[in-house]
Design a protein that fits this description.
heterodimer, A: about 325 residues, alpha/beta, Rossmann fold, Alpha-Beta Plaits, 2 domains, 6-stranded mixed beta sheet, about 25% strand, elongated, disordered C terminus, B: about 240 residues, mainly alpha, 10 helices
């Protein structure tokens, strides 16, 4: 199996004059979980629809397992399972019958239905009609539909949408198990970084149709640089004192000062300087930008480095 | 074969749906109409041909009114199950050609209408047999005209392919019953005016009844079949090229 499960080159899609996806170059490694992050309306679902051939790009190419999707849609879709937004179900049929409909389309082995039901833990409720299912059960059945054909790649669009905390927890556990137990590559979209960082090894951040970041979770975490937050009674004096001393210092709306430093030694030096000037320091702390801050910064059109400057400003 | 797979899937989707029940309910209306009209009939002369009357009333009412409305309902229900929960996005991401999915929807609609038309013939034969027992004047009506009934039922069905093709495309293209129902009711309603127009004989909703007329049989039959196939191909091409929102 190729090392890259999904690759897009210059993927672009317009709706009228609106550029929904703009020159996106995804590279999704096989056998991991790739979190595709972005706020609502960022272009996640449009990208996913292009990955599945549901809509055609205006420009660019989608390659799955190193094969062009445009030329090999049927054969590639045999290796892909998908859950796009809400599950596609027939409420008048039972859970098992819903899987049977898809099995018939696939001409797959009947045993796969029991396997899929087992993975999502719906075996006991498989005989019930879907209209009686809770939202969480419907979401799990949607996942079972996506898993039915034993796919190598699973594409999930906002799989935790509408789930209660227990449902989100179940879904998260399930997604974590898939690469480990079944060797499946999972590509999942979400607008919640907190959700993605718990399951993903790789992250792509999209905003206004542009891919702003792509890399491992560790790469993103490396962007978390420290800065110093200072509380001092004489704010204006402290600001001048530190600026005159050559520190890049800014005052915040809450009255605290931030200084772009990264080491405890520098923090101690600044503290000594302020106290030496007779200023009353009541708070001093080295803090890191959270992943959430970095995500918000990126999706506000700034880089992580700019975020830290903003924090220090 | 992908078409067989798609038909197999469609057959399961019909389970517990109104679409299956209506296959039997719609002909019952015509049979009931026939039964009461014949049972209450007065002044029956010795020349009266009960089977001819029953056969023509049932097939005419079926062809011009009930079947077009049933086609509206069946195609809307067949495609409504996939519009309701936005299932197209799931189906289109499966390794099955869209053309097979479209053809399966179309063929399933044709099969349901065929089954309902066959049931109409059978139930009207039962009506005739019942009348032979209930009305002494009709007791000597003889054997049912099986050959004529099944042959003309088949012609009516074949001539309806164009209506089925139009409705399949409308109901697969737009979600909801409003447009499908509007097309169906509009089609039947304007048929009343089309009968008096010079080119009315070509009106799709009049083709099924036109096959019951000897001079229009060939035109109506071929226009129904060929027009149905052409409309199906056009609808299928649009379906294949469509983006799934």
């Amino acid at each position: 199996m190729p090392n890259i499960a999904i690759e897009t080159r210059g993927l672009t899609r317009r709706f009228g004059t609106q550029l929904a996806v703009n020159d996106v170059n995804l590279s999704v490694p096989a056998a991991g979980v790739y979190g595709f992050l972005g706020p609502n309306g960022a272009g996640k679902t449009t990208t996913i629809r292009m990955l599945l051939g549901l809509i055609r790009p205006n420009a660019g190419e989608v390659r799955l397992f190193d094969e062009s999707l445009a030329n090999n849609h049927q054969s590639l879709m045999r290796r892909v399972g998908a859950l796009v937004e809400t599950p596609s179900l027939y409420p008048h049929l039972t859970g098992r019958e819903n899987l049977e409909v898809t099995r018939r389309y696939l001409n797959a082995n009947r045993d796969l239905i029991d396997r899929a039901l087992g993975i999502v833990k719906l075996t006991a409720d498989a005989h019930r009609r879907v209209r009686e299912y809770s939202l969480g059960m419907r979401q799990r059945l949607g996942l079972a539909l996506a898993l039915l054909n034993n796919p190598q790649l699973l594409i999930l669009d906002e799989p935790a949408n509408g789930l209660d905390p227990a449902g989100i927890h179940e879904m998260r556990d399930l997604i974590r198990r898939l690469p480990v137990e079944f060797g499946i590559t999972v590509f999942l979209s979400s607008h919640l970084l907190s959700e993605v960082e718990q399951v993903a090894n790789y992250i792509g951040i999209i905003h206004q149709g542009k891919l702003l970041f792509q890399g491992t979770l560790a790469d993103l975490q490396a962007e978390r640089r420290e800065h110093l937050t200072i509380g001092v009674k004489q704010t204006e004096q402290a600001l001048h004192c530190l600026t005159d001393a050559g520190w890049q210092t800014h005052s915040r709306e809450d009255g605290l000062l931030t200084v772009a430093v990264a080491t405890p030694e520098a923090a101690a030096q600044i503290n000594s300087l302020l106290v030496g000037q007779g200023l009353q320091v009541f708070h001093i702390a080295l803090t890191q930008a959270s992943l959430e801050d970095i995500f918000l910064s990126l999706t506000n059109g700034k880089t992580a480095a700019q975020l830290l400057e903003r924090k220090a400003a | 074969m992908s078409l067989i797979r798609a038909l197999h899937a469609e057959s399961l989707k019909l389970k517990r749906t109104l679409a299956v029940r209506m296959v039997f309910v719609a002909p019952l209306f015509i049979a009931a109409l026939n039964f009461f009209a014949m049972y209450e009939r007065r002044n029956i002369t010795p020349e009266f041909d009960m089977w001819d009357t029953i056969s023509k009333i049932s097939l005419s009412a079926w062809a011009v009114f009930m079947m077009p409305l049933l086609i509206t309902l069946e195609t809307a229900l067949l495609n409504g199950v996939d519009h309701g929960e936005k299932n197209w996005k799931h189906i289109f991401a499966l390794p099955i050609p869209r053309s097979s999915v479209y053809a399966a929807k179309l063929i399933m609609a044709q099969l349901l209408i065929a089954a309902s038309t066959i049931f109409l013939v059978l139930i009207n034969i039962l009506v005739g047999l019942a009348l032979m027992r209930l009305r002494a004047e009709m007791a000597n009506a003889g054997a049912p005209p099986y050959g004529w009934l099944f042959k003309h039922a088949a012609l009516v069905w074949l001539a309806s392919w164009l209506i089925i093709a139009i409705h399949t495309w409308v109901s697969i293209r737009w979600p909801g019953f409003a447009l499908a129902l509007g097309t169906g009711v509009g089609g039947v309603f304007f048929a009343l005016f089309a009968t008096s127009a010079k080119i009315g004989k070509y009106y799709p909703w009049l083709l099924p009844i036109n096959v019951l007329s000897a001079e229009r049989l060939n035109m109506a039959l071929w226009l129904g079949i060929v027009g149905g196939l052409v409309a199906s191909v056009i609808g299928c091409l649009e379906f294949i090229r469509r983006d799934v929102a």
